[in-house]
Specification:
The chain is mostly helical. It has a domain of 119 residues. Helix content is 61%, strand content 0%. It is built from 9 helices and no strands. α5 packs antiparallel against α6. The longest helix is centred in the last third of the chain and has 21 residues. It is globular, with a radius of gyration of 17 Å. The chain starts with a helix and ends with a helix. It comes from Pan troglodytes. Pfam families: ADP_ribosyl_GH. GO terms for molecular function: hydrolase activity, hydrolyzing N-glycosyl compounds. InterPro entries: ADP-ribosylglycohydrolase, Ribosyl_crysJ1, Ribosyl_crysJ1_sf.
Length: 176
C-alpha cells in the first residue's frame, strides 16, 4: 500500500491530493520494510484525505467479526498520510460506515456504533506505541464533535431512532 500511495502521488500530478497527503507520501519509505509507513505526527493532518481513501477497507472487512482488522487497517492507512487523530479516525469512520452499510445496519445506529469502536482504535494506537502523547492531546476533539452531532440530532441513545433536523436546514442559516 505504501508503494502504491507514493507511485500514485508521483504519477498523477493533475490529481491534486490534499496537502497532508502530499506531505505524508513524501515521508513514506516504500523500500524500508520496518519503517515504510511510519510518518511523524502531523499537527495539520486532520483533514478529510484519509477518510476518502478508506471506503475500500470497509468493503474488505465488512463482517462484524473482522472489526479488529478493520480498525487496524483503517488506522494505519490513515496514519500514513494523516497522522493526527482527527485524520486517521476519519479513515476509521469511513471504513466503518461502509461496513455498516454492507451489513444492512440501520443508518441511525452508525454514529453510536462508530463511537463504540473509537476506544478500540485508541487501544490499538496505544499498543503500537507511536506518538501516544500527541494523540492523547488531540483525541478528544473527534469524539466530542461526533457526540455533539448525535445529541443535536437526538440519536445519541440506543432508544432514539429518528434523527431530528431543523425545518430550515440550509448552509447559510446553519452557519449564522
Amino acid at each position: 500500500m505504501v508503494r502504491c500511495y507514493v507511485e500514485i502521488v508521483e504519477k498523477l500530478p493533475e490529481r491534486r491530493p490534499d496537502p497532508a497527503t502530499i506531505e505524508g507520501c513524501a515521508q513514506l519509505k516504500p523500500n524500508n520494510y520496518l519503517l515504510a509507513w511510519h510518518t511523524p505526527f502531523n499537527e495539520k493532518g486532520s483533514g478529510f484525505g484519509a477518510a476518502t481513501k478508506a471506503m475500500c477497507i470497509g468493503l474488505r472487512y465488512w463482517k462484524p467479526e473482522r472489526l479488529e482488522t478493520l480498525i487496524e487497517v483503517s488506522v494505519e492507512c490513515g496514519r500514513m498520510t494523516h497522522n493526527h487523530p482527527t485524520g486517521f479516525l476519519g479513515s476509521l469512520c469511513t471504513a466503518l460506515f461502509v461496513s455498516f452499510a454492507a451489513q444492512g445496519k440501520p443508518l441511525v445506529q452508525w454514529g453510536r456504533d462508530m463511537l463504540r469502536a473509537v476506544p478500540l482504535a485508541e487501544e490499538y494506537c496505544r499498543k503500537t506505541i507511536r506518538h501516544t502523547a500527541e494523540y492523547q492531546e488531540h483525541w478528544f476533539y473527534f469524539e466530542a464533535k461526533w457526540q455533539f452531532y448525535l445529541e443535536e440530532r437526538k440519536i445519541s441513545k440506543d432508544s432514539e431512532n429518528k434523527a431530528i433536523f431543523p425545518d430550515n436546514y440550509d448552509a447559510e442559516e446553519r452557519e449564522k
